[in-house]
Structures are given as C-alpha cells and as structure tokens.
Amino acid sequence: MNIKQYLDSTYLKTAIQAGLSETENTTIVRGFIQEAIEEGFKLIMVRPDKVKLAKEMIVKANSKLLIGTVISFPEGTNSIEAKLAEAQQAIQDGVDEIDYVCNYEAFKVGNTELVKSEVLLGTKLAFEHHKVAKWIIEVAALTDAQIIQISALIKNVIIANFKEDCYPNVFVKSSTGFYKTENNLPNGATFPAIIMMLENASPLPVKAAGGVRTYEEAEEMIRLGVKRIGTSAAKTIAHGETASGNY
Ligand SMILES: O=C[C@H](O)COP(=O)(O)O
C-alpha cells in the first residue's frame, strides 16, 4: 500500500495559534508545501490565505501535488453566503479540494434545513469548478446519534441532487483537529466515530482527520475503509514513525 496517496498533509495553524509572527508562520507553511512536494503526498491542506502561495510553489516545481483548503474554519458557523464567498476566492486562487466545516452547531439545535442548504450549495459550487468537496462534521462535538444522522443527511443531499459518478468527489470528514472538549477527551478521528461515518455516509467516501499520529492508526483507518487521512503528521506517518499527539 502506498500510504502517501491517502495522506492530506495538513498545516492549518494561524500565526497566532502557532505563537509566531506572520512572516515566521509563512516560512513554516512554505517548508510544509516543499516537503509535501518532495514526499509525493496526494494533497497539501493549507488555510485559504496560503492557497496562492501553494499554487505558485507547485507550478514552479512542476509537481502534481493537489491543494486543499478549509472554509469557515474551525467553527463552521459562518452564513452560507460567507462560506460560498470564501470558497469562491479559494477557487480563484487555485484550490483543488474544498473542506467546508458544516454548521454542526445549527444541526445540533435542529436546524437541519440550513445544513442541507449549505451542503447542496457548497457542493454545487465545487462541482461547477470541477473541485472535490468535503464536509467536516466535527465528531467530538456530536453524540453518536448525531454522527449517524449528519452523515446520513449529507449522503441524502448528495444522492438526491447529484449523479452517481459524483459521489467519489464528496467526502464526509470527521474533524477539524481544533475542537476542544472538556476533560481533554479525544477530539478527532476516533475508530468508533469513523465506523459510524463509514456505515452511514456510504456510498460517499470518508476522510479521517484530527489526531492521527501513527502509521498503525492510519493503516487501520484505511483497512476500515477511509479513502483519505488528513494529518499534520503526514511525513512521520509516511516514514513509519510516531508523532507526538496534540490533543
Ligand atoms: O483537517 C485536518 C486536521 O486539522 C488535522 O488535524 P491534526 O493536526 O490533529 O492532524
């Protein structure tokens, strides 16, 4: 198995989150993009304001590395209009895959219509530009029943509105990697959450993200059926090593 083809190498910290100046953080992002080019990962995930930089570096290196970005990250509470505008800008800057954070807070209070609308319109926008869409559900913020319901909701919106050959291009994604739980509980891609997603999102593919730190974890996720793994430890995982956790 070529694990690198499953790995979305991810750096989503803002300068403030990284405790760095803007210039220092951009230097880190540059290094991350360069590393992903050299390692032959499938895709690099960066914040929207770094998509242009990634595109320039990838074109210059004549690399096939794809670029993904995150929309309404990490809370997902922006209006649909704001999400579409952010995605539109990322498309203009050269993005290949758009990872939208679902408005899971709206979902939790019963506003499923809003989530259905954003999934429909956000996916439509991605498809109009031949891009992949992913919907982050933030499993740590949800009960098991809610994980099941929102995975099925996304699946049903896609099945009702798009042709079968589009299904591989819409993912249900577990986590932002930035959610903070009380008592420091795991905030990312746990095996039980991934299994519930796989069972209820199918035929849509699942992306596991958040807290994946070892080759063994990644391999087990793939064995379970995930098609993509988003991790800030892609290089260490690809080299069969274990990175320190960030929960
Ligand atoms: O979208 C991907 C996540 O931000 C990656 O999370 P991580 O930093 O815990 O690997």
UniProtKB/TrEMBL annotation:
- What's its top-level EC category? lyase
Alphabetical GO biological process terms: carbohydrate catabolic process; deoxyribonucleotide catabolic process
- Keyword Transferase assigned to the entry: answer is no
GO CC annotations on file: cytoplasm
Q: Which SMART domains does the UniProt entry name for this protein?
A: DeoC
- The keyword Cytoplasm is annotated on this UniProt entry: yes
Keywords (alphabetical) are:
Cytoplasm, Lyase, Schiff base
* A molecular function (GO) term: deoxyribose-phosphate aldolase activity
PANTHER family with a match to the protein in the record: DEOXYRIBOSE-PHOSPHATE ALDOLASE
Cross-referenced NCBIfam families: deoC
Q: What is this protein called?
A: Deoxyribose-phosphate aldolase
User: Which species?
Assistant: Flavobacterium rivulicola
Encoding gene (name): deoC
